[in-house]
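Researcher: Quick test of sequence recovery. Tokens follow.
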């Protein structure tokens, strides 16, 4: 009598799909024949695959819950549940996925393409705007150098005698004829008489790759650079996957970027705001002089054309927008405070010296009259 599928995965009968997936990954890593040292690892691994194949399918799971093994015996299998050791990328995909976001699974027919990987590269704003070349180190699955990725010590792959090189076998179950992945070759259609000792016949080894990545000028947060063939190695001579480098730009102490424009807040003393003057303001290419006209109000935005970012997608160059913030003086002496009182008294009853306050007062008076306060 086959073991209970829920007990095989070590989950309760009300386990969610996420619980099943986590349990399968844990058990598959534990019993995968390429990594497990337990004596009965191969059979346990096949049991885990079969249990997960049934329970992850809502229709099969419902039939199993109601009728047990008899409820799913005639429903047909497929994919990895039919047997075989599977692709090493399927087992370790969740480990690399924590770092790179995972890759896409491929059908187990002949040689298999390697996983696509993802790497997040952090840049300073200056580096993103000007462009730079960066060295990155990536843990990945590489092609075994001993067997050149074939998985065979001699480099020779024979046609699988079980499936005749098709990777699939047809099995008769009562009145049903079911096509399943070949349990002997795992769907590759090839057999290895002399597995490579370094990769145990998978053609893949874990390694760290060092790459030089050229970052074009003008990249922005969320941009992605694709490096063809720099992902995980393919199995049994398959093509390598791609590496996707995601750009993350660190926060800058002075500038905020919005598209091709840069924004900067510039504090100015109250005297400069009232009388006008000039200020030296920073840009990514050095400093420039910003003219402040007399009677400038706090929040006024000045545009410096062409001082922003040259986008990686266009020939145009953005602007630098400087928002002035008028500062109230602090730590005044007694004499300075007295001078300010005299200055305030010189206005008398006139309020045309404070245009924003005057307008605000009118709005408040209108609001009170409308509300009957």
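Model:
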């Amino acid at each position: 009598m086959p073991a209970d599928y829920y007990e095989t995965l070590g989950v309760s009968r009300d386990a969610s799909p996420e619980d099943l997936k986590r349990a399968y990954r844990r058990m598959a890593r534990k019993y995968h024949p390429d990594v497990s040292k337990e004596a009965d690892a191969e059979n346990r691994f096949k049991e885990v695959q079969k249990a997960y194949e049934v329970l992850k399918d809502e229709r099969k799971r419902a039939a199993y819950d109601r009728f047990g093994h008899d409820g799913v015996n005639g429903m047909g299998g497929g994919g990895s549940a039919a047997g075989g050791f599977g692709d090493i990328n399927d087992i370790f995909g969740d480990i690399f996925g924590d770092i790179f976001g995972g890759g896409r699974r491929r059908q187990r027919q002949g040689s298999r393409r390697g996983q696509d990987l993802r790497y997040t590269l952090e840049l300073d704003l200056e580096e993103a705007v000007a462009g730079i070349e960066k060295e990155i180190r990536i843990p990945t699955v590489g092609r075994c150098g001993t067997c050149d990725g074939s998985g065979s010590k001699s480099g020779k792959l024979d046609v699988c005698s079980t499936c005749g090189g098709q990777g699939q076998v047809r099995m008769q179950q009562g009145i049903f004829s079911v096509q399943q992945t070949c349990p002997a070759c795992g769907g590759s259609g090839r057999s290895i008489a002399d597995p490579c000792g370094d990769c145990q016949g998978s053609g893949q080894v874990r390694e760290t790759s060092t790459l030089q990545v050229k970052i074009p000028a003008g990249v922005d947060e969320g941009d992605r650079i694709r490096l063809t063939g720099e992902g995980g190695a393919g199995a049994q001579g398959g093509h390598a996957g791609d590496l996707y480098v995601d750009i993350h730009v660190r926060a800058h102490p002075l500038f905020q970027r919005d598209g091709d424009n840069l924004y900067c807040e510039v504090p100015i003393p109250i005297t400069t705001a009232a009388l006008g003057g000039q200020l030296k303001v920073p840009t990514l290419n050095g400093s420039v002089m910003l003219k402040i006209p007399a009677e400038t109000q706090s929040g006024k935005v000045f545009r410096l054309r062409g001082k922003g970012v040259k986008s990686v997608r266009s020939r145009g160059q953005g602007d630098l927008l400087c928002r002035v913030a008028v500062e109230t003086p602090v730590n005044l002496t007694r004499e300075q405070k007295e001078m300010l009182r005299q200055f305030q008294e010189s206005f008398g009853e006139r309020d045309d010296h404070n245009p924003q306050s005057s307008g605000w007062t009118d709005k408040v008076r209108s609001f009170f009259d409308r509300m009957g306060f």
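The first helix runs from residue 5 to 9.
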